[in-house]
Design brief:
The complex is a heterodimer of chains A (179) and B (129).
Chain A lengths: L17 H25 L10 H9 L7 H17 L2 E6 L5 H14 L5 E6 L6 E5 L4 E5 H7 L1 H13 L3 H9 L3
Chain B lengths: L1 H82 L1 H13 L9 H10 L1 H11 L1
The chains are: A alpha+beta (179), B mainly alpha (129).
């Protein structure tokens, strides 16, 4: 069952796929362990260590104070639930996408498809332009090759037309040749 | 004396007769020989002509077969080209400008395609979940 979307924390676009999610979970667990142990040792408020940019982004987007143990626990539970239940898609491109590209793509997917969708990125140089998207049960070929296949009849028609009707250029060349 | 004359006459007549007979026989034999040579020559000519005709027919047949094979092979090549047209063009485009197509330039095209397939993607994700 997918996580409840209405009251659920927001996943920032910096968190693209499972790798980012796993990184956040490990960081949060380390943070929890460190803060708990420091609190036990000192018995008083302990300053938050330096967090990764992604963690900062996650906390800021959801307006969470990670000094609060309850916030950390809820966030960790949410991230683990996402790791288990969030919808996943696999997208392949002809080249490595830039972070900017990924951000725009993830933004579109989270706003149009599902707010917690996770994206796995693959490489398929053979597709040329476009991409290939794989979901649980479906394979969407949105590559240039597929477009060419769909437009094949147009190409064949144009080829046949060009074969039967010589172009003005070739006719001019034929006229000039005897001289 | 008469007997000698008679004998000489007879001998002469006999010689004449033999000469005529031999000549006649030789002529007949030579005529037959000439005829048999002509017959053999005609047979040889006929045989050579038949062989030539057969060779010509076979040559024409072979030429036709080769022509048909060439046409069939050409047709096969054209069909194979047409069937693999998209792969050929895809390969050509990639080879020609593959290095110059930046992924960022494709974003609009990719998002347009995603939009076109949005409902199907959402449906599959919801059913999969």
């Amino acid at each position: 069952m997918a996580p409840e979307t209405q009251a659920a924390p927001v996943l920032p676009v910096g968190v693209v796929g499972m790798i980012d999610l796993g990184r956040l979970i490990r960081e949060l667990e380390r943070l929890e362990a460190k803060l708990s142990s420091d609190k036990i040792r000192t018995g008083s408020y302990v300053q938050l260590p330096k967090l990764s940019a992604l963690m900062d982004q996650l906390a800021e987007t959801n307006k969470l104070d990670l000094r609060d143990a309850h916030a950390r626990t809820s966030l960790l539970a949410f991230l683990k639930l996402l790791r288990k239940e969030a919808p996943r898609v696999h997208m392949s491109f002809s080249a490595d996408p830039t972070p900017d590209f990924l951000m725009k793509l993830t933004t579109w997917l989270r706003t149009q498809v599902h707010p917690h969708v996770l994206v796995a990125i693959g490489l398929q140089p053979g597709i040329g332009a476009g991409c290939v998207l794989r979901t649980t049960n479906h394979y969407f070929d949105m590559s240039l090759r597929k477009t060419f296949t769909e437009k094949r009849e147009i190409l064949m028609k144009r080829l046949r037309e060009s074969n039967t009707q010589p172009t003005a250029e070739t006719q001019a060349q034929t006229v000039e040749a005897p001289a | 004396m008469f007997l000698q004359q008679d004998l000489r006459l007879t001998t002469s007549q006999l010689n004449e007769y033999m000469k005529e007979e031999i000549t006649r026989n030789l002529k007949e034999e030579f005529a037959k020989y000439e005829q048999s040579i002509n017959d053999a020559k005609q047979l040889a000519i006929d045989s050579i002509q038949k062989t030539n005709t057969a060779i010509e027919e076979q040559r024409a047949q072979l030429g036709q077969q080769v022509q048909q094979q060439i046409v069939a092979e050409k047709q096969q090549l054209v069909e194979r080209f047409e069937q693999n047209m998209t792969d050929i063009i895809n390969h050509y485009v990639l080879a020609a400008i593959g290095d110059q197509i930046d992924l960022n330039d494709q974003l609009e095209y990719i998002l347009a395609d995603l939009e076109a397939n949005r409902e199907a993607i959402i449906q599959d994700i919801n059913h999969g979940a």
